[in-house]
Amino acid sequence: MRRAQFGAENGSNGEWKRQGNRFTDRISRASDSSPGEGPDDQGRWPVEPGRYRLVVSLACPWAHRSVIVRRLLGLDDAISLAVVDPIRDEQGWRFTLDPDDRDPVLGIQYLSEAYLRTDPSYDGRVTVPAIVDTVTGLVVTNDYPQITLDLSTEWVDHHQAGAPQLIPDDRAEMDQLIEEIYRDVNNGVYRCGFATEQEAYEAAYDALFARLDALEERLQGRDYLLGDTLREVDVRLFTTLVRFDAVYHGHFKANRNKLTEFPNLWAYARRLYQHEGFGETVDFDQIKRHYYVTHNTINPTGIVPKGPDPEVWTHVD
């Protein structure tokens, strides 16, 4: 097999298989723990404004979801934000954007320090987003799909007035869409980019563009994926779409079409970009530097492309 970017996550057939989430406790209104205490016997930490720190990379689409949802719901003061350097080194995500290369709240230089404090035997890839408890320094969760759902359902008492209801009362249709979009689009671009065999790459490529074609058709005459209301599933699709032309089209060889060549998807993505909470959380410089510099088996020269021009996202036709 050809050398993989993350060898432990490639199967024998060259297919990319993302690792699971190690830390899956939740912050919940149903927790039996008192303020300042750790999790109850069901792994539920108490909802406590000012206690937890959300660690993200602005380059990472999985982390970007939590940044957007936190902003949309008005949880900026309730949950603090730590941003890591977009370039990972051999020890993983670094706090080099902060003074003295150390997170000012957690007091650590690498996110891996919190991982190993929580599980000294952990030997997997350190991932973002992660919510870290500032009282104990332990990782509460790196379960990125659940983090954003819990921001909507468990932190409701701390939402700003007029915050959107990102999760509908009947979740069946949205959950089905979320599953399809995750499999074929969110994770699909990685299955293209990290494949180490031609057959595995082409299978992921075909599934990706079949799903994008279906979404293009779905968005005909709709503002959002579920109609006229912004939902969680829109956030999840957006963080892949906003990176598509800048990274996935070339770097990950997802190059049948650019996003700008899908009329409905492009209009939808631009509409979201210009929505409060979306565009201001996008950092194209960090996105491109992360992918093109960190993935050195895919781009060994480390050259970061100059384009595309980010002004296309705000240009008025």
From TrEMBL:
Matching InterPro entries: Glutathione-S-Trfase_C-like, Glutathione-S-Trfase_C_sf, Glutathione_S-Trfase, Glutathione_S-Trfase_N, GST_Omega-like_C, GST_Omega/GSH, Thioredoxin-like_sf
Transcription listed as a keyword: no
Active site: 60, 190
Biased amino acid composition, Basic and acidic residues: 15-29
Cellular component terms (Gene Ontology): cytoplasm
Span list, region Disordered: 1-46
Name of the protein in question: Glutathione S-transferase family protein
UniProt lineage: Bacteria, Bacillati, Actinomycetota, Actinomycetes, Propionibacteriales
